[in-house]
């Protein structure tokens, strides 16, 4: 009787451990974790919410949820930084819109 309980406990532990390993390997296959540039800014390789990782900015000014399929492009990041550095030179910001008359 005691041997049966030990066998059931051992089988249960093996099943639970195997499920945990398959979850980790599935997480490693996401595009966000494959891309080194994106992975640098993730706070953890574990999902905070289903389908999302926590992303922290390099300045530490904000955090946001990043979809597991998302990849941050270096070119996009540098264009945003350029826009922040010189906002008045950006063409879309230089367009004037008519103000509503009151």
Using the alpha-carbon principal axes, give the shape: elongated
Order of strands, main sheet, comes to 1-2
The number of distinct β-strands equals 2
Mean pLDDT: 75
End-to-end CA span: 88 Å
* Biggest pleated-sheet summary: 2 strands, antiparallel
| Rg calculated over all Cα atoms | 24 Å
Percent range for β-strand residues: 5-15%
Order of helices and strands: HHHEEHH
How many individual domains?
1
Q: Percentage of helical residues?
A: 40-55%
* Uncertain runs: none
Helix count from the secondary structure assignment: 5
Going by helix content, strand content and strand pairing, the class is mainly alpha
What report would you give on this structure?
This is Lipoprotein. The chain is mainly alpha-helical and 102 residues long. The protein has one domain (2-92). The protein has helices at residues 2-27, 31-34, 36-39, 74-85, 91-94; strands at residues 52-56, 63-67. A two-stranded antiparallel sheet has the order 1-2. β1 and β2 form a beta hairpin. It is elongated, with a radius of gyration of 24 Å. The model has no long low-confidence stretch (mean pLDDT 75).
């Amino acid at each position: 009787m005691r041997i049966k309980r030990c066998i059931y406990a051992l089988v249960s532990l093996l099943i639970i451990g195997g499920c945990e390993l398959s979850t980790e390997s599935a997480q490693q296959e996401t595009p966000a974790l494959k891309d080194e540039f994106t992975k640098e800014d993730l706070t953890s390789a574990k999902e905070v919410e289903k389908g999302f990782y926590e992303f922290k900015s390099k300045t530490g000014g904000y955090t946001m949820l990043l979809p597991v399929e998302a990849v941050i492009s270096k070119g996009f990041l540098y264009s945003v930084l350029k826009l922040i550095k010189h906002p008045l030179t950006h063409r879309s910001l230089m367009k004037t819109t008519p103000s509503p008359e009151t």
